[in-house]
């Protein structure tokens, strides 16, 4: 069967379950007779599996959420009083008591205020990180469902890296599993290979993770991975651990 060229462009959308029913049925009929699309769908499924396990967002502890939700509404418990009545106090302490109570209240208020500010800042940072991860995931999804999305995979020992790219979007992403943990002060850096000239494309914070590469593909023929000092380098300082072709 000579399939319409449009069917060959639906591999990414099919793998992410983004096709409406008529197109899905037509593509599955095409898939039964097209080994190239079958292989590409299998590669997309493997990439999506790595996407699901590469990076997880750890929510803030439940206690922190409860404190932040109730800090402006829950009143302080009243002091416990002795039913028999307070014991007699020396006159000097009685005269000093209002000032001591005021000082204690001020110290408590300052302490609670500092805790509230710290918790607010931590919650804001967690919210910003969650928003960043959601935006990154949305960008990954748009890249994966691009009609011309392609994948390339390479291995180095137990480590496996996959590049997903779209020529029409001039955008690429990298997913890794099994990269060894690095000592303090070292990080993995990604590079676009511009026919032998390596162009920085971002830092991978951990051995297992995903990264939307910075910069456009702009004719790059591949993507490389090196180990660099924390903060990255302008040029590779060692041999690439992986070189993945964009072909």
TrEMBL record:
<dbReference type="GO" id="GO:0006417">
    <property type="term" value="P:regulation of translation"/>
</dbReference>
<dbReference type="Pfam" id="PF13490">
    <property type="entry name" value="zf-HC2"/>
</dbReference>
<dbReference type="InterPro" id="IPR041916">
    <property type="entry name" value="Anti_sigma_zinc_sf"/>
</dbReference>
<dbReference type="Pfam" id="PF10099">
    <property type="entry name" value="RskA_C"/>
</dbReference>
<keyword id="KW-0805">Transcription regulation</keyword>
<dbReference type="GO" id="GO:0005886">
    <property type="term" value="C:plasma membrane"/>
</dbReference>
<dbReference type="InterPro" id="IPR018764">
    <property type="entry name" value="RskA_C"/>
</dbReference>
<dbReference type="InterPro" id="IPR051474">
    <property type="entry name" value="Anti-sigma-K/W_factor"/>
</dbReference>
<dbReference type="GO" id="GO:0016989">
    <property type="term" value="F:sigma factor antagonist activity"/>
</dbReference>
<feature type="domain" description="Putative zinc-finger">
    <location>
        <begin position="8"/>
        <end position="37"/>
    </location>
</feature>
<keyword id="KW-1003">Cell membrane</keyword>
<keyword id="KW-1133">Transmembrane helix</keyword>
<dbReference type="InterPro" id="IPR027383">
    <property type="entry name" value="Znf_put"/>
</dbReference>
<keyword id="KW-0812">Transmembrane</keyword>
<keyword id="KW-0804">Transcription</keyword>
<protein>
    <recommendedName>
        <fullName>Regulator of SigK</fullName>
    </recommendedName>
</protein>
<keyword id="KW-0472">Membrane</keyword>
<feature type="domain" description="Anti-sigma K factor RskA C-terminal">
    <location>
        <begin position="102"/>
        <end position="238"/>
    </location>
</feature>
């Amino acid at each position: 069967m000579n399939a319409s060229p449009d069917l060959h462009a639906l591999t990414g959308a099919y793998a992410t379950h983004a096709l409406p029913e008529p197109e899905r049925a037509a593509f599955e009929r095409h898939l039964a007779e097209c080994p190239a699309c079958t292989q590409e769908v299998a590669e997309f499924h493997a990439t999506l599996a790595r996407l699901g396990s590469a990076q997880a967002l750890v929510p803030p502890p439940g206690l922190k959420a409860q404190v932040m939700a109730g800090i402006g509404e829950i009143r302080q418990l009243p002091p416990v009083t002795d039913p028999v009545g307070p014991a007699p106090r020396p006159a000097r302490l009685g005269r000093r008591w209002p000032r001591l109570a005021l000082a204690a209240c001020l110290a408590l208020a300052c302490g609670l205020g500092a805790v509230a500010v710290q918790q607010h800042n931590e919650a804001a940072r967690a919210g910003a990180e969650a928003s960043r991860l959601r935006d990154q995931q949305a960008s990954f999804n748009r890249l994966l469902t691009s009609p011309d999305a392609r994948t390339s995979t390479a291995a180095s020992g137990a480590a496996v890296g996959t590049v997903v790219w779209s020529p029409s979007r001039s955008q690429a992403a990298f997913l890794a599993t099994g990269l060894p943990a690095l000592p303090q002060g070292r990080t993995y850096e990604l590079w676009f290979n511009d026919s032998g000239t390596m162009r920085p494309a971002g830092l991978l914070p951990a051995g297992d993770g995903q990264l939307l590469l910075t910069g456009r593909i702009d004719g790059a023929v591949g993507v490389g991975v090196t180990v660099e000092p924390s903060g990255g380098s302008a040029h590779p300082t060692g041999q690439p651990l992986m070189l993945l072709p964009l072909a």
